[in-house]
Amino acid sequence: MQLLIDILSWITILGGSFFVITGGVGILRLPDFFTRLHAVSMSDTLGIGLIVLGLVLQAGFTQTSAKLIMIFLFMLFTGPAATHALAKAALHGKLKPLASQKMDQEESSP
Amino acid sequence: MRQSISLLVFLFAVWLLLSGYFEALLLILGLVSCTFVVWIAKRQDVVDHEGHPVNLRPIRWILYSVWLIGEIVKSNIDVAKRVWNPRLPISPTLVKVPADFDELQQVIYANSITLTPGTVSIDLTDNTITVHALTREGATTLEKGEMARRVRSVRRAQ
Description:
The structure holds two protein chains of two kinds.
Chain A: H1 2-29, H2 33-59, H3 63-92, H4 98-108
Helix pairs in contact in A: 1-2, 2-3
Chain B: H1 2-19, H2 24-43, H3 58-84, E1 93-98, H4 103-115, E2 119-125, E3 128-133, H5 136-144, H6 146-153
């Protein structure tokens, strides 16, 4: 039983790490500010979620698990707020998303 | 009043969860400090339908969360595939989606959009949310409005 839990938590923690790394790679590879925001939400949700799940499996039905889950819930609330604040600041700074530039081009050259 | 009581119960539950103490003296001290916090919140006038929503439907809310987690997992896998793909198959799109709900539902909706990888809500003006999507498919899925329909269901009709 302990072995099964260990294997499961290894899988979830490694999976979570994979998504966090993918988020980092996404930030490097994606072309502009707004597309990079998408990469961050990947490590924010499934990355953190799977790591917390793995740690909860290790901690069992204890107070530690409850605290871990609360950390996850707080991440779920603060993540989008931070992303939204960044996006809004970028819009205010007159940064044009790649998408709208493309739209302008299509309109000007039919 | 309903909101104050609900806030007190919620605060005390969190206090119990985080402290883990069950001795009479400490329980009373915890309860006193929770009541104090509720009193301060009441004086600051922040106990309202927005700060502490009591008219959410709990069962619908849980169903919505489960559905949202499913969507998040699906789109995570999709975006991860695109990031690792050497050709980087993305098509950034801007769309405007209607959000004619009350304020709380708008917040839930915009946050859900941002939480789902592949779509980020970048602006909210007069019941329309401007969404930046990583792919055209992501934008079309959102425009079909399944998420909006589900968000509408988590709150009792006023």
